[in-house]
Amino acid sequence: MERPSLEVAxxxxxxxxxxxxxxxxxxxxxxxxxxxxACRTAHLGCHVDSCTQ
Length: 53
What we know:
Elements lengths: L7 H15 L4 H12 L15
Helix pairs in contact: 1-2
């Protein structure tokens, strides 16, 4: 299955810090943004399979 060209995590990675500095977020909203940003990263145990042959 092909990944979409635009994902929420990507938007948060690019713009999340600026958004958080200019908007008030509840602790739950802050945690949700952080969790989405961490999705598919080494922080949550993501791995990449590759073949050397």
